[in-house]
Amino acid sequence: MAENGENFEGLSTEDLRERAVELARERWDVRFFWRLLRLIPAAEAVAGNMEASDASVAQASGFLYEALSVESDPKVQEALRPVYVEYLRTRED
User: Torsion angle of alpha carbons 21, 42, 34, 82, nearest 10°?
Assistant: First the structure.
């Protein structure tokens, strides 16, 4: 049983996915979505969809590219400035 008393074992995978994605959207939980993006290619491979696995990697990189395209806005760049500085200071050479 889950912490809130709900038994998730009785739910379909589709229902679980919908609930998890909706909760992550409500919470703006980027880490959850990032985790899914990282796991989808492996899940495709486990499901025997090797071609889809390769396509998933391409799609994930496309989503990331699209998300980063908003970064061309100077105001967005300025808001992200501390992130750039932190990354450059802490990156491994």
Answer: 180
| Average pLDDT along the chain | 75
* CA-based nearest residue to 31, from 41, 42, 20, 47: 20
- The tokens describing 61, both together, are 């990189």
Residues 30-71 pLDDT 10s: 888 888 877 877 777 777 777 766 666 677 777 767 766 666
- Please give the C-alpha separations between residue 78 and each of 57, 60, 81, in angstroms, as whole numbers: 30, 26, 5
Token reading at 38: 């990282």
pLDDT at 93 over 60: no
Rg (C-alpha) for the chain, rounded Å, is: 18
What is the C-alpha to C-alpha distance for residues 6 and 44, in angstroms, rounded to an integer?
A: 29
